[in-house]
Structures are given as C-alpha cells and as structure tokens.
Amino acid sequence: MTATASRCPPADVIAAFAFGELLAANASSVQAHVSECESCLETVGHLAASSRPETLSVAALDADTLDAGLSRRGQIIGGYCLVRELGQGGMGEVWEAEQRTPVRRSVALKLLKAGMDTRQIVARFEAERQVLALMQHPGIAQVFDAGVTTNGRPYFVMEYVRGQRITRYCDEAELDLPARLLLFQKVCEAVQHAHQKGVIHRDIKPSNVLVTQQDGRPLPKVIDFGLAKLTAPDLKDATLTEIGTVLGTPAYASPEQMSLGAIDVDTRSDVYSLGVLLYELLVGVIPFEPKGGQPDALLELRRNIRELDPTRPSARLSMLGSHASEVARLRGTEVGMLRRQLRGDLDWIVMTALEKDRARRYASPGDLARDTQRYLDHEPVLAGSPTPAYRLRKFVRRHRMGTAFASILLSLVIAFAAVSALQVKRISAERVEKVVAVLREKLAEPPTLEELGRVVGCSPFHLSRTFSAANGMTIPQYTRQLRMERAAELLKSGKFNVTEAALEVGYSSLSHFSQAFHDTFGCCPGLYPLRTPTQKIALK
Predict the structure, then answer these.
(1) Residues 232-253 as b or e (16 or more Cβ within 10 Å = b)
(2) Which of 96, 134, 149, 208 could staple 83 via S-S, CB 3.0–4.6 A?
(3) Is the model's pLDDT at 538 over the cut of 50?
(4) Do 255 and 350 fall into the same domain?
(5) Rounded to 10 degrees, what is the CA torsion of 150, 153, 156, 162?
(6) Is 203 a catalytic residue?
(7) 152-171: per-residue pLDDT in tens?
(8) Active-site residue among 203, 224, 270, 371?
(9) Structural domain containing residue 447
(10) HSE (CB half, 13 Å, CA atoms) of 299?
(11) Beta-carbon-side half-sphere exposure of residue 62 (alpha carbons within 13 Å)
C-alpha cells in the first residue's frame, strides 16, 4: 500500500537517508516507509543518482537483510557468476557477470536491491524488463534472460555494453561537429525505435548512452530503461504514474518532467532530453547547470528549466571564457570557427528541441535527426529563427504586469498623438484658407511671405511648408496662377485689352505679363481665348 503524503518524512530526512547520513536508529523506520511509498522511493533514487555515486546507505538496511540479500562477487545467480558491480540505481543494482553455458560471454545482470521487494517496486522492475524485451535495435542493449534468485529477488540479464559515455568518447577522439552529429543521429534512431514500440525512455543523458565499437565503427547504445513509460494500451498497467516526484536526471529532464503535479509526459519529452545531450555535444556544457551544495539547488534548477529560455549554443560558447579554447580544441577547430559553425542552423536546431512549449519542438527524435542531416547536407533546416510575433508573445508572457502598464501608456500616447495631429491638421487648413482669401483680395499688390505669416500667426517657413503640402505648389506659384486666371477672365469678357488686364492684376511690365500668361495657358494674351494661330485660322 502506498503511503500518503501526510505520513511522509520531511524532505531533509529523506535527503539524509538517500545520502546515507541518517543515524541507524532512525534509518530503519524511514527504510520501512520508503519500501512502501512509491513517491519517496523515487525521490531517494533520484537524489542519490544525481548528487552522489552511492545510493541507499547500508546503514538503512537491517542486519537480517544484509545477511540474506546483499550480492557479492563470485555469487552464482541463475547460472551467471557475478564478476564486479557496475553501479546502482534507486531500486536495482547492476553487475558484470559471466555466462558459462551454453555460451561463454560477459553479460550485465540487473537485480532488485535487497529489501525492495514491495509490490510497487517489483512492478516497476518488471516493467523495465518488459520494456527491454519489446525492442530489437542495434542501438539498444538487448535482454537475454530473466529469473528470480533463491531469496526471491527478480533479475534480468542483458547485453553488456563495453563503452564510454558519448560525451567522453567524442572528447577523447576529438571528433568535429559533423562526426558528433552523425553519432547523435544514431542515438535519435534508437530512441525513435523505442517510441515506435510504445516506450518513452524519460532519462536520456550521457551516462545512459554508451559508445562501443562494432566492426571498427563507433556505435552508441541507449541503456537503462528503468524510468521508461509504456504508451501502448495493453502495456500501460505495467508502469506507474507519479505525483510530486521529479522523474529522470533533473539537468536533462524536460519542463513537463519537472512538474510536481501529475506528470503528463509524451515522446516529445525525450526530444527535449536529446536536445540537452546535443547541446552538450556541441559546446561541452548543458543549458542549465545544477548548483551543487545549495539546499534549494534542485528547486532553482526546476524553476530555470520551466521558466527560463536557454542561451543559444553559439552565445554560450562566448560565455565560457578561457575554457572555450579547450572546447574548440576537442572539436578539432578554434573558437572563432566553432562559433561560426554553431551560429544559425545548429543554434535553431538545438533551440527547437529545447522549446518550453512541446508543441513547438520536433515531433519525434526522427525529425530531429533528419534536421541535423539537412544541416550536414547544406539544405534548409525545418528549425528557424522564431518570428517577431512569437518573440513578442514570449516577452508578454514573461512580463505581464509591465507589458499591461506599457500597453495602457502606449494607448494614451497614441490617443494624444492622434488628437494633436487632428488639431494641427485643422489649424493648418484654416491658415491655408485664410492665405488664399488674402491673396484673392490683394492680387494687384500681393503681400509678402512675412506679411502673410503675421496675418495667420506663424513663421514664414512653417507657412510655406504648410501651404505647399496642402496645394502642391508654393505661395508665389499659387499667387501667379490666381493672377493669370483673373487676367484670363478679364480678357475673355472683352472689356479689357492686354495692357489693361496686365495692370489690373499688378503687372507693370507687359513682357513679364505675356511670358507668365504664356507659361500658364500656352498662348499669348493677345490671342486669348483663340489659343493658337492654327485655331484662329481655322475659325476664319
């Protein structure tokens, strides 16, 4: 029966138990609770795995359990001889073992820890065995056998992968970026195969991706499906749903995995973890580094993963200081060249995989792998720079109060500007109308620009610009047009000759009047309204 949250020990007690720092007098009661509480068991496992190499303290097990259950070198389990312990997890221990019949080979044997044989823990252990049995892929460690020890501890035997974690292998081989991407694509293909079988890994990290040699070529293998989730309808009962527990290694976990509510995880969670792994392969660090030694380090890491956008790989390289030279050397290049290689397509491939909104991530590991291949083939990648609209939405979500205040202030400014513009437009129109009226009234002796400015109450320069914008011509040009139009009316009436019309509109020089009249109407004033000699002859 799973213990309720109200009966769970305080967080500091659980942490002390996980690190083996709890007194033996208190450890037994905590051990009894942990063996029954799925949530506390997972918390103990992940605290121990992410913070220290050791897991549950030996002090936490009673003497009877120690005598009856601890595995030891040379022990025979189901025909397999234990050679050396490879590691421990939250509920199991992994040994290198030797199979002697019917074939002789080294295998990896994983068995349930002593004292952990509760119904929930056994169900999870059996789920991992079922998960591995589902998959047949060269990039995933294969299951060979399974059984139960004489004292009732279930175990299973799988392929022993002699390899290095992928990040160490790439650094020691000083692989350049294209070689690292090709290796990463194989990891994506293995995870894609797991997804096709209805399995979500949920704990992808360098120590769970080991590179071995096959026919002289590097082959990455994905291991440790202890936290895997089955999505096939007929297999879901084999795995459990956890509330209030962080599943997976925190620094590589997706934002949805870092939720403390009911964990809603799908295949895109593995895409995020693959993005973190790719980030580390490219620049040698992960997007959000955990700060060890601080009591609230896990809470801060959780907050960063869920709320902060990671720094682009090319920008992160610039932040490494003197360490950037070593990172570039391990990738067979120098800092400036590495930065140029990262900037652009690789930046956006990584950032797409690390999107907080999983709907904006790659839909599958296969899509991520194909985009890296497009980069290698110098083809356009599907990932791209976020649009300005998307950046604006992200900014608004981060600064709701500030943007609300800024929006109100901006609206007020726009409204004030609109009212001011309308007022200026109205005043300008009134000034133009007044100038036109004055010019019509004083055609014979037009006022100067300075005089007009005093009449309408503005500077000559401003008046000139306002008038030109409204009428498409300067005040002198408009004045001449008015005078010529008036002269034309006088000539057309037949009551004025050319000289009289010129004097009436303020021209003392007949030649200047004739030139202005010709420029306006295309004929001499003496021929008006018979505009051209041709027209005059035609009328005769």
Answers:
(1) eeebeebbbebeebbbbbbbbb
(2) 96
(3) no
(4) yes
(5) -100
(6) yes
(7) 888 989 999 989 999 999 99
(8) 203
(9) 402-472
(10) 4
(11) 10
